[in-house]
Target: precorrin-2 dehydrogenase
Amino acid sequence: MPLFPAFIDLKDKRILVVGGGKVATRKVQKLLPFGAKIEVVSPRITKELQRLFLAGKISWKKRKFLIKDLRSAYMVVVAVDSIGLQRMVFNYCSKRKILCNAVDSPDYCNFIFPALVHKGDVVIGISTSGKVPALSALLREKIEECIPKDVDKLLEEAYRLRSSMKKGKRRQRVLKEFLEKRM
Ligand SMILES: C[C@@]1(CC(=O)O)C2=NC(=C\c3[nH]c(c(CCC(=O)O)c3CC(=O)O)Cc3[nH]c(c(CC(=O)O)c3CCC(=O)O)/C=C3\N/C(=C\2)[C@@H](CCC(=O)O)[C@]3(C)CC(=O)O)/[C@H]1CCC(=O)O
Ligand SMILES: NC(=O)c1ccc[n+]([C@@H]2O[C@H](COP(=O)([O-])OP(=O)(O)OC[C@H]3O[C@@H](n4cnc5c(N)ncnc54)[C@H](O)[C@@H]3O)[C@@H](O)[C@H]2O)c1
Model:
């Protein structure tokens, strides 16, 4: 069954990341630009996570995961090579309606990370519903090639234009013409 792409407001939401390796680092880098409050729990973390921790961008509990870490989390990412831990966290989260991503098994995810094109407020998410992530990555590269390099600036210009006009048929027409000329 395909997964529905919903765009979630993560500003100030508490996100727990279990594990501090390569994959956890990629997930943290993906989440940070969206304003989440990220807490990593892991005995060891990568150099990049250490840099983010020292810069005050994330918090870090230097120890193994404990079940109490899940309390009040909005979203959890389990990036540890243990299917037992992933299953346990997923079951806990499912009962409490917490969003859970287990990096080793789509079966233990109630949301997955898409491949992302992110330029300003333009966000394109690509997924294969968990089937072949490498295809998502390839599709992202193709999409990056064919959209305007400055699509973020185009959005801001179009937004200013849109905000300066009353809603209605005329605004729809003007916006469509404005965008078509620049694509
Ligand atoms: C899109 C992207 C986003 C991101 O990570 O942020 C992403 N994986 C990426 C790359 C990638 N991941 C893997 C490879 C190696 C090739 C391969 O094995 O296939 C490559 C390719 C590469 O590195 O180029 C290995 C892998 N991934 C998962 C498993 C477990 C499994 O499938 O059972 C295993 C096996 C682990 C093992 O070896 O044991 C699972 C998931 N990976 C997902 C997302 C979710 C589904 C996305 C979708 O619906 O398409 C899901 C379900 C959960 C999740 O992670 O959210 C990112 C590309 C970012 C970009 O370039 O833009
Ligand atoms: N979903 C994806 O996109 C994707 C892509 C590639 C690999 N993977 C899978 O992701 C998993 C993690 O990969 P990695 O390269 O980051 O591994 P890694 O070994 O570099 O990192 C594991 C991290 O987990 C920490 N850890 C171990 N036990 C812990 C515990 N009980 N509590 C808290 N932290 C603990 C370790 O200190 C380490 O920081 C692997 O199982 C791999 O197969 C997923």
